[in-house]
Each structure stands twice: as C-alpha cells, then as structure tokens.
Structure to design on (176 residues):
C-alpha cells in the first residue's frame, strides 16, 4: 500500500507507434507526479552501448522498464510504462512486475481512429531519441498485424479526441 492508503498502481499505456501514447503517458505522469518509463529511449541506449538492434534488445528494454517500475511500486509510487506492448510476452512482464510489488495494473490502450491523422503524426514526428529511428507507416502496419487483443480489463482512448479530455477520462479510470 502507498503511504496514503491507496493501492500502488502500474499504469501501462499501450498502443501502436504514433498513436499518441507518449503524450498521454506524459500528461498522466505530470498530473499524478508519477514516473513515466518509456521503452524506446532505453532500447536506444542499449543500441548505443554497442549491442545491435534485434528482437532481443526490445525484450531487454521492456525488462529494464519492468524492473524499474517494480522498484518504484515498492517505494509506494505509481509507475507508468509507456510501450507498444502488442504481444502477450511483453504484457506478462508488466503483470509480473505489478504482482511481485503487490500492486495493481491498469491498462490504457491508445488508438487513433483516423488513419490519415495517424499517418500524418508519424510523418511529422521527431522525438529526438538519440539513435532511435522513427517508425515508418509500414512498421506500424506490421505491428498492427501482430497485435494481440488485451485480455486484461482496460480503457481504450482515441487520440483524435482532445488530450485533456483523454487525460481526464484516463484518470477517472485509474481511480476507479
């Protein structure tokens, strides 16, 4: 339990690249005063250390975020994982981290219902993660094809809506 009597929460913000999950995760983190742990910069750091990009470096980045999130949860802090999390293997990392820390996991899946908007966001996106290339539309389609539906209770947020409205809805879900 957190010091204020609230249950510690691991918030997983999931969705395809470019849908707006990082914007939502960051906004929720600011409102809650919670750590936002993003997989992409960690994977980029692994690559910069000389380990070539592979499925394994992606798994390693997820594992690092899960370990850091678990530590935050054990300190009685809310942690937010910002990651695509398209496959059950990644989702199991989140579940196990929450379970080991005695916390609950809440999932917010971010979608972009307008394909043209989604494509435009990718074209104009420049996150500035050293050594991490922005995904192409083909990368997004590949991830969409491999997407496994969430089996956990979760909230679906459509990022074509106003960010503040989405943050308000997500916070209500997290508190409920």
């Amino acid at each position: 339990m957190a010091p204020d009597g609230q249950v510690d929460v691991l918030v997983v913000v999931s969705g395809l690249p470019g849908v707006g999950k990082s914007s939502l995760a960051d906004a929720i983190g600011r409102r809650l005063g919670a750590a936002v742990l993003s997989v992409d910069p960690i994977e980029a750091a692994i690559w910069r250390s000389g380990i070539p990009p592979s499925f394994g470096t992606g798994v390693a980045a997820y594992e690092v975020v899960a370990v850091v999130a678990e530590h935050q949860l054990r300190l009685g802090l809310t942690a937010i994982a910002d990651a695509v999390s398209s496959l059950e293997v990644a989702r199991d990392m989140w579940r196990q981290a929450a379970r080991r820390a005695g916390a609950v996991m809440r999932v917010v899946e971010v979608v972009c219902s307008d394909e043209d908007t989604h494509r435009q966001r990718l074209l104009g996106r420049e996150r500035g993660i050293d050594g991490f290339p922005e995904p192409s539309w083909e990368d997004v389609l590949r991830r969409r094809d491999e997407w496994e539906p969430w089996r956990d209770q979760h909230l679906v947020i459509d990022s074509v809506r106003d960010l503040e409205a989405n943050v308000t809805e997500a916070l209500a879900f997290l508190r409920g």
About this structure: The mean pLDDT is 93. The helical segments are 21-32, 39-48, 55-74, 88-101, 115-123, 137-146, 163-175. Strands lie at 9-14, 35-38, 79-82, 104-111, 154-158. DSSP finds seven helices and five strands in the chain.
